[in-house]
């Protein structure tokens, strides 16, 4: 089948009809609002002129102008979107051309010919893990054709093969290959029109505020205009929900169809493999960025972030036992749901993209397979990939403000430091993520009499047992969501659970069964937890270290009990400080700061305890200590002379966030100490 013969699915047609309806509905509603506003404006202008001519004078002149301006401002509000354009920020992009990159442009040319669409206006490289087609839009772009620009992320190219790049580009151009897909552009622009009227009003608000400040007579009619505009916006919000929901529904179907077009160009596997690897690649890229974020104070950066990105992708894949071919992970579909064991499925009406799992499943249904070329890294498509990598790296780091002159680290030094950080922030690998979301448990010997500790350590922390932990988390979350559906906190009428469709009324009868499943699951987890404790308890007795193990458990349990109360201090104070993001009367602001004083005193005492504790000694860097001691150095005032004292607030928020970080870090370390000790027991046993 040729691409021109691909037929939209029934779901696509259904969403397209809904989108057409929303456009027509908006057009009619907007026409009515505009007609009303034009009539109101004419009436206001007539009333203003009549007032001035009937009762000549300075006061009536001001009132007349005020009356006329109120109508004009309302009309201006409804028409301002016509003059608004949406321009994409290109400061982070690097434009490339055919002369620079002939092989890439040949690939694009092949794709646009096969897909049957236009060549992009311009081609840009970005630094991230992404690819997209974009254009500067305005109201008039619904009526006049606009050539699109192609943006390709170097972080994406860095972790895919050449054929996968072709599949991704075919998907992007597939969005514009069929007439039915032009409908999405109309819905998109209608969506932006309503968004502009609802939320993009800063310059308009400034204009009417300046007008109101000219005269108190003008301000009276500005208030009237604002009230009428608020009523118009109420109507538009109702329209926005309808249009936006239908736009997003159509957008999801457009993704499926663009995927099908890509499958016809390269077969389904290249795009499926790239999609499955995408989240791993993004996570790795963000991990490298975080690595350098933490070293800004040390004035450290790199000349090539993409070599390091690829290294981290491979490291994470090895850690998760994901197979690799030619240095690229082949992420299995099951890996996406490794930590998501929820049986509850609620259609997300507000998502613009379907899930990766749904996209891959639909790609498989095409059953289109080609004998693709041998593996070639996508980065090889560039004439000088090393220069591009270094150019884009320089662009990324150019936005970072360093205290002083920077120094570069090479790839070997990065690998050493990153590995040290990675393993310092991870539990021993043998536990297989079992304790990432739960705590080790200790049991009295009386509860273990019936158990026999014969299972090896690998069995205790098998993928199956780790899966039990995430099933338990998922069921608890499902129960909470179902309760919200039942009491109408969530406006959900129907949902799927374990492959069956239910209505809101059926939640009450469904919950007891799920809660019973949760109890059965908890019993199974507890049985394994007892076997784990018995396993390490037996080893500690055999090695004469039972007191050390007991001491570590007791230390962890004490910290665990105190942690929630200590962290609540952060949660409480953060919540009470939310008012600093609002506009409030000065008296209210001062009263709020007085209210937090006792809680702030508790925070200072808690920070003092952390600074003197041996437990945090290795975690508190000189920079961190300096910031915390600055906060403790005096009683800070946060508001004065009718304005916030920004520097003082920064000191407070920095101390509060660092307190939360150290608490969480302390919890992690004390758990890791226990687990590392247990691993040592097992290692000694195997050596013996």
Characterization of the model:
The chain has 688 residues and is α+β, with helices and mostly antiparallel strands. The protein is built from 21 helices and 15 strands. The strands form six sheets. A four-stranded mixed sheet has the order 2-3-6-4. A three-stranded antiparallel sheet has the order 10-12-13, with no helix packed on it. The chain has a two-stranded antiparallel ribbon with strand order 1-5. The longest helix has 51 residues, at 216-266.
Q: Can you count the helices?
A: 21
Name the helicity range: 55-70%
The residue-averaged pLDDT reads 87
Distance between the termini: 66 Å
* Rg computed from alpha carbons, rounded to a whole number of angstroms: 31 Å
Low-confidence stretches: none
Structural class: alpha+beta
Features:
single chain, 688 residues, alpha+beta, 4-stranded mixed β-sheet, 3-stranded antiparallel β-sheet, 21 helices, 15 strands
Provide the fold topology.
Layout: H1 10-54, H2 58-79, E1 85-86, E2 94-96, H3 102-115, E3 123-126, E4 131-134, E5 137-138, E6 149-153, H4 154-157, H5 162-174, H6 182-199, H7 202-214, H8 216-266, H9 268-293, E7 300-301, H10 305-319, E8 324-325, E9 328-329, H11 333-336, E10 344-345, H12 356-366, H13 385-397, E11 407-408, H14 411-424, H15 457-460, H16 463-486, E12 494-497, E13 500-503, H17 507-542, H18 546-576, H19 586-612, H20 622-632, E14 639-640, E15 643-644, H21 646-687
Parallel strand pairs: 3-6, 7-11
Antiparallel strand pairs: 1-5, 2-3, 4-6, 8-9, 10-12, 12-13, 14-15
Helix pairs in contact: 1-2, 1-6, 1-8, 2-8, 3-5, 5-8, 5-9, 6-8, 7-8, 8-9, 8-12, 9-10, 9-12, 10-14, 16-17, 17-18, 18-19, 18-21, 19-20, 19-21, 20-21
